[in-house]
Amino acid sequence: MYDTERIGKIISDIEKYFRDLKELDIKRVEYLEDKKNFYSLSMVLFSIINRAIDLGEEMVVANDLGMPSTYREIFRLLSKNKFIEKGLEKRLSNLVFYRNLLSHEYYDLTEKDVFDVFKRIKVVRQFVNIVKDAVKK
After folding, report:
1. Residue 8 DSSP SS3
2. pLDDT (0 to 100) of residue 8
3. Using alpha carbons only, what angle is made at residue 31 by residues 29 and 32, rounded to the nearest 5 degrees?
4. Rounded-to-integer distance, Cα 37 and Cα 133, Å
5. What is the pTM of this model?
6. Taking a C-beta distance cutoff of 8 angstroms, is the pair 14, 128 a contact?
7. CA pair distance 36, 46, nearest whole angstrom
């Protein structure tokens, strides 16, 4: 059974962060030479990825798919159980890699790294839509 209140809050947060992303109006990697843009974008991306992980975890628990020991395993379990397709699993798992960089090795991140995450982050919207459809059923 889905905790629709918690799932709704997570999705609402993700949608808010995507609106924040739009407001930042980052168009090119050069925009990130301004440290305010760099750190703002990094934090919003980190927040989106964290909430996507939370959303995945909710789906794993609600569907009794197992007990993930890592963030990546959340998406592996969802894929293994046909909740998401393998390609989406890989793209979401890749974001987990970047999430770890953003949280643990932020001092080594370049403008190019952050912009690369920015280009990839839209995959979270696809995941959100899958969750919304599943909860409606």
Report:
1. helix
2. 97
3. 75
4. 34
5. 0.94
6. yes
7. 15
CA angle 79, 120, 43 (to 5 degrees): 105
**Virtual torsion, Cα 114, 74, 18, 132, nearest 10 deg:** 160
Structure-block tokens of residue 130: 């899958």
Length of the chain: 137
Strand, helix or coil at 54?
A: helix
User: What residue has token string 């403008």?
Assistant: 111
CATH fold of 4-136: Four Helix Bundle (Hemerythrin (Met), subunit A) (1.20.120)
DSSP letter string, 90-108: HHHHHHHHHHHHHHH-GGG
Question: Which pLDDT does position 137 carry in this prediction?
Answer: 82
